[in-house]
Amino acid sequence: MPVVKAVTCPVCGSLCDDIELTIENGRIVKVKNGCAMCEAKFLGYCGEHRVLKPMIRKNGELVKTTLKEAVRRAAEILAEANYPVLYGWSNTSCEAISVGIELAEEVGGVIDNTSVVCHGPSILSIQDVGIPSCTLGQIRHRADLIVYWGSNPWSAHPRHIERYTAFSEGRFEKSAWRSYVNKVKALVGRKKIQSAIKRLFFKKPVPVPPPVSEYKPYPSITKEGRKLIVIDVRRTKSAEIADYFVQVEPNKDYELLQAFRALIRDQELEVDKVAGVPVEYLEEVADAMVSCDFGALFFGLGLTMSSGKLRNIDAALSLVRDLNMRTKFVIMPMRGHFNVTGANTVFTWQTGYPYAVDFSLGYPRYNPGETSVVDVLLRKESDAALIVASDPVSNFPRKAAEHLVENPLIVIDPHMNVTAQMADVLIPSAFVGIEASGTAYRMDHVPIPLKKVVNPPRGILPDEEILRRILAEVRRIKKKMGEAA
Amino acid sequence: MEEKPKLKVTLLTGRTIEQGAGKERGKSSKEYVESVSVCYIDPEDMKKLGVKDGTNIQVSTAFGSVVVKAKKSLRAPHPGVVFIPYGLWANVVVDPETHGIGMPSFKGIPATVEPAPDKPVLGLEELLKTVFRKG
Fold first, then answer.
1. Would you call B30 an interface residue with chain A, using a CB distance cutoff of 8 Å?
2. H or E segment at A123?
3. Pair A71, A473: CB distance under 8 Å
4. pLDDT beyond 70 at A230
5. Which of A72, A323, A382, B31 is the most core-located residue (most Cβ within 10 A)?
């Protein structure tokens, strides 16, 4: 059975490029090195949820049609619309995104990518404050302190810790997995002893351990090697393996970030607790941050979606700037979809702006809050939509999704997802990174090629080709309309 | 009649590994639907509400309400905080306010939780029909 090595995983922004796939009769039958999400994608891509024929809604039902007819109908909808939205783009290749932007310009619509509901606020803050960053490779080899803030890599980026941060074996920094294994063993041992006591002295109250943030600090300050700090509202799986876990109250990240900034500047806080965390503990953590040689702060949607949104990121970027006065520190957003960074990059090349670009005046305009897709939908301004490689009906707040499904909806997606079920025109596409090649950008802005490992089902084209055909048809219709006028 | 216990909480939404793997299998797969139609609650809060693991509960915010299954949180203690993984069930109740920057408020939403053993957790098709009257 042929084995394809060094395949890039098209799931999250980590873009692990060491996946090995075993192919049998044109199907992937075994995945090596992948996480749970990676395995689910490579083994389930051709399952029962796959759409194999283009469909059009007739009398309220989706019925099968030809690709030519579906492309013609999609082009008609877009050409006739006054203010269509073209949304998604983070789960496809840079090449397809590039054609999508051309199409948005042609139809005078709003084009937006999924960063608007993930790291849009981070981009706005980076435009204001700037970002000291580097590649994941540098972090792997050099970072001796890792901070995850408002992010749970164990669930969202399962191999991030192993490949790039605390558990990775770098040239100058050793993997810290052995010390974590010992720590976990000790924790399990403690739990076993507790349950034994519980069994022996049935019904006698067992001492309840204090909340994690009130534990005596783990003696990490003297610990050799890499240290891991997790700051989150819940004690996630990632928090359990951390040297320090700071449990912040929901919506109070901004306060905590500013408290850290003050502590790093050697200022005293005249309160006992900040955001529910004792100041003494914060001082220990701030000491650990200042005393590292190379620190990296990764932040997730816990900061961008909570109260404060972009201001939280302002504070995080400023914290890293402050830390750089004392030591070397970098910061990086934890990007979710595999090519959301690529979407931002291609948008910026072609329009000057990373997301939420409005072509309705004939030139690109960018004003998140006004030209961002959720706001357009909430104001009920759009009159058609093209969704590519995304599922906004299940990911947008109900009010926004309601307007999206009221108008003609074109969906290009390999799977029958919630948005596809609502579509008026549904065009199935090939999976980029499995059935089509292309380029994607990792979360540190490193472009990585995606491989084609198997052939797509008969008659199924990649997103790029489908979009090219729609664009050509739109141009033909518009020319005809121009001639008629 | 005895009044049902109600709890004021802060609602968070986010990823879980089950949701992540489920979405890759297919949005209508059993694994995905079961991974996102649940609400993780602190065990102490479950006692206050008088609900057990698997009991149906109703989560309500100023933007809507949804019935999901209560699940004992393994990430406790987080009293007063409940967690629903990203998905259609969560998005029925999240705050659409973007504060002028395009990002809705998916985390830290004031909500109330109450037991709803008599109300069913709607499946994907039923929820789509109820919410959007299409599909």
1. no
2. helix A120-129
3. yes
4. yes
5. A323
Rounded distance between C-alpha atoms, residue A149 and residue A301, angstroms: 9
Is the pLDDT confidence value at A48 over 90? no
A484: CB partners within 8 A, 6+ apart: none
CB A466 within 8 A of CB A456: no
Considering only CB atoms, A234 lies closest to which of B81, B96, B100, namely B81
Task: For residue B100, report the phi and psi dihedrals to the nearest 5 degrees.
Answer: 75, 15
The answer to whether the beta carbons of residues A244 and A288 sit under 8 Å apart is yes
- How far is it, in rounded angstroms, from Cα A407 to Cα A414? 22
Mean pLDDT of A201-226: 56
- Going A187 to A247 to A152 to B26, the CA torsion angle's sign is positive
Distance of CA B79 to the CA centre of its chain: 16
* Rounded Cα distance, A67 and A462, in Å: 13
Q: Are A396 and B90 in contact (CB under 8 A)?
A: no
Residue of B10, B24, B99 with shortest CB distance to A11: B24
Which of A245, A394, A406 is the mutation pick for testing B, counting most B CBs within 10 A? A394
Residue whose structure tokens are 């981009």: A123
pLDDT tens sequence across A293-303: 999 999 999 99
| ipTM score | 0.93
Question: Could you tell me which residues are beta bridge partners of residue B68?
Answer: B57
